[in-house]
Amino acid sequence: MDCSYRILFPILFFILFVSVSCSRSLVETQIKDLNNSVQALFVFGDSTVDSGNNNYIGTVFKADFWPYGKDLPDHIPTGRFSDGKLTTDFIASHLGIKEYVPPYLDKTLSVEELMTGVSFASAGSGYDPLTAQTTVHTRVINMDKQLEYFIEYKARMEQVIGKEKMETHIRKSAFIVSAGTNDLVFTYFSLPVRRRQYNITDYQNYLLQSTQKFIQSLMDLGARKIGVVGIPPMGCLPVMVTLKSENAIFQRGCVDYYTTVAKEYNDKLQTELQTVMKINAAKYGAIIVYADIHESLLDIIHNYTNFGFDEWKRGCCGSGLLEMSILCNPETMVCVDPTKFVFWDSIHPTEKTYHLLFMALRNTIDILAKK
Ligand SMILES: *[C@@H]1O[C@H](CO)[C@@H](O)[C@H](O)[C@H]1NC(C)=O
Ligand SMILES: *[C@@H]1O[C@H](CO)[C@@H](O)[C@H](O)[C@H]1NC(C)=O
Ligand SMILES: *[C@@H]1O[C@H](CO)[C@@H](O)[C@H](O)[C@H]1NC(C)=O
């Protein structure tokens, strides 16, 4: 098939979450901290938050080989689509939960690891069921299946700690949902099927409806602190610059149309989440927050030298123009210093960028943790 079909996939970006009110009296705050601080982090979505679930399924869309993970402490690839940690790892660490959010499909996880949270995310996935089916010709774990795994998770935990404790645990946990980029970049803009059915406005609305359904399902399953991540400035991802620019070699720059589509989508998502929040805050005591990574990534790209980067227009792996997943492999050349690169491969950020995105989300996380 054509090159975009093979190469474009998942993306996704990240994170975040939840928030709530801050201080009352010091004493009361301390008690609240003890009782309500977030003890687990559950993650759903695509490659930006998949810590290795795709290692365990039959897809070629994996990252469990060198040079992926080369900057992790033991330089061991985990399935994370970066040279190091993901934003969700930094969040878990910041909350004092643990250093890494492991993939649920790892059957060797201890009860302790399961209790403190896992990722159900799958690289290549999206809200549109077609996305997980068609990514690189093989199936990845769609969002409904991720929810099914969460239901299975709850049943397993119930056997260990009992129903009541399990439900309390879930209520106090943070949830991050990060998807939608693959739906737009891959399914909508690279395959013909959906473009025949929907214009871009209608497709955005279709995705928003799916997002809303997903959040509703999470709440029905007990989630009360949910962060929904927006879509990155798609037109600035190196792969989009390569595939959608008129002169992809000599005049590389963001392709504004795609970034505008992402921005529009994020604006609608924020409005949608506010509505869902109003309805459900009273009903369930739930908190639903929009997690912006769009503006922070755009800021990093626009002012990359201020952040100590030398390059954003190509990734660190290979030529940096198209490579990702199996095209970024042990035979591929890698840049000397990934901390000089905004992107690790043609679509996924380096650990340094993921850390900067985490920093931009930290205030929201702090508020959440203090609930
Ligand atoms: C908080 O925890 C303390 C000690 O475990 C307990 O006595 C108290 O009832 C809890 N408060 C709430 C609101 O759960
Ligand atoms: C998309 O199609 C809808 C009808 O389904 C129409 O109302 C809308 O104006 C169209 N939007 C664009 C951008 O073409
Ligand atoms: C990035 O650039 C914009 C506009 O040039 C500026 O307003 C903003 O403060 C800069 N941000 C950083 C972090 O340098």
Automatic annotation (TrEMBL):
CDD domains: SGNH_plant_lipase_like (cd01837). Residues 1-22 form the signal peptide. GO terms for molecular function: hydrolase activity, acting on ester bonds. The keyword Nucleotide-binding does not apply. Keywords: Signal. It comes from the Eukaryota. Belongs to the 'GDSL' lipolytic enzyme family. PANTHER family: GDSL ESTERASE/LIPASE EXL3, OS09G0540400 PROTEIN. This is SGNH hydrolase-type esterase domain-containing protein.
